[in-house]
Design brief:
The complex is a heterodimer of chains A (274) and B (298).
Chain A (H helix, E strand, L loop, with lengths): L1 H12 L2 H21 L3 E3 L3 E3 L11 H11 L2 H17 L2 H7 L4 H34 L5 H4 L4 H24 L2 H25 L2 H8 L3 H8 L4 H8 L14 H24 L3
Antiparallel strand pairs in A: 1-2
Chain B lengths: L2 E12 L2 E12 L3 E5 L6 H8 L7 E6 L6 H5 L2 E4 L11 H12 L5 H8 L15 H13 L5 E5 L7 H16 L3 E6 L2 H7 L2 E6 L2 E7 L9 E6 L2 H10 L3 E7 L2 E6 L5 H11 L3 E7 L3 H11 L1
Parallel strand pairs in B: 3-7, 3-8, 5-6, 6-7
Antiparallel strand pairs in B: 1-2, 1-4, 8-9, 10-12, 10-13, 11-12
Helix pairs in contact in B: 4-5
Organism (chain B): Hyunsoonleella aestuarii
Pfam family, one (chain B): ABC_tran
Keywords (chain B): ATP-binding, Nucleotide-binding, Transport
Chain lengths: 274, 298
Amino acid sequence: MLRLLNLELQKLLLNRTSKILIFVSFILPFFVILLSSLKINVFGFFTLELGELGVFNFPIIWHLTTFFASQFKFFFAIVVVSMIGNEYSNKTIKQNLIDGLSKKEFILSKFYTIVFFSLVSTILIGLISICIGLYYSSYNEFGIIIQETNFLLAYFVKLIGFFSLCLFFGMLVKRSAFALAFLFILFILEWIVFGLMAWKMDTDLSEKIQNFFPLKSMYKLIDQPFQRVAMTKFPDKGELVYDYAVHWHEIFIVLGWTALFVFLSYRLLKKRDL
Amino acid sequence: MEPILTINNLTKKFGYLTAVKDLSFTINKGNVYGILGPNGSGKSTTLGVVLNVVNKTNGNFHWFDGNTSTHEALKKVGAIIERPNFYPYMTASENLKLVCKIKGVDYSKIDEKLEIVGLLERKDSKFKTYSLGMKQRLAIASALLNDPEILILDEPTNGLDPQGIHQIREIIKQIAAKGTTILLASHLLDEVEKVCTHVVVLRKGKKLYSGRVDEMISSHGFFELKTNKEQELLSFLEQDKSFGNIKVEEGLITAFLNEPMSSEDFNRKLFDEGIILTHLVQRKESLEEQFLQLTDNN
């Protein structure tokens, strides 16, 4: 396993473009979260300090940071599709197989890399959340701090799921740009299908079905936190209440998709003549 | 003899097109094999199948004694097919390091093999800055990294300039001299003739011949003759049962033998008949002529 990871890391880290993209995908969310936690003086008119809104309190901070950090997953998605696209355009995939890498090992080396970077990203986000939380949070009891750390698990699973989807699209179309286009098409397609279902059936049921779709199920892992922040501000407004927790069935749906995408990528490669 | 690669009734179809049809042959240790065939005869497809990049439709093949999986066996094989494929943004030694990681070879081999192909002083240049000849030599270095039991080369001199071709051939000859088994696919016959002991001839995916180079067609060679008494000579040759096909081209008579005959006996016989030759050459068909004969007849 380490051999396969090592192999892929060499391919990625010696490539300047992917090195920059990896750097951006890790450092950018880190900085955005860090900056937002600072007191910002907006042109001398007023000072903006998000910390005062209570958004950096434990346990809500887990929800917020993972939600915002996951918006930056697109940068690493470009790395994932290009690491497949480059293998095809340089024909190095063929050479790798001739040199004695099996097709299974090839897919696994990509998948391990995805897991590795998702893990690194999760750890980074976890660390910065703890630091900011300890600084701002009004509650510092251990029991409260570890509450809702399952958002970190959700973040980890969400990244793996999304990048596995990118891996599959990369294998399917062999070209990075087209793979990203496919991702966008899938996004639109999911909404069209949802729209059709909502039109023909009732909205509640179609929403339940939509939660099984690949992109939607990944999104659903970490629901948007704005409503929750509003809820804490106006606790008496009952219509704001919604279910934002991470549920096990949501994690299993995404893990199911992940397994399917990795398996399909392998099947595609196995059947294909290079 | 120890078999290295055994192919049994291998068939590969691309849709309606049959690229390789019912092909069987065995590669034994220590010999230098050539796979000959016109473009599109299925050479590269056959190599692609045994190298794990093309899926077979029917039949089977196995490496060595048949107890190792294909990708494990390939770690003991060195192969270059078509163009050299490397990561353009990595240097030569970084590219070879990656191959070492795949094959499980020690990094110390890198400099040793770069030395053989004469790229040691350029080892820290990026692959994309290399000329085609250098790329091809790097590919050979990469194939040699694991001191392979068999070296497979598919059109190794394709697209190179004369110096490049010469360099590659010298390297191949050196490797062959060390006793490494080589499988060389090519349509350049003089290339094969110079280095190979055995050939497999393919046409349209079918095997026409496999065996030693010098036994390719059952031929006793031919005479090239010139004389002032052309008519007499021709009628003499037509009566003699030792001769088969006779061709006349601009005064040069080519007579193909049906049975062995020395030029000395033949010359004496003609002299007794009163025919004096002004030109007498006894030859065997070159590989090129044999190959064309074989591919035309079938």
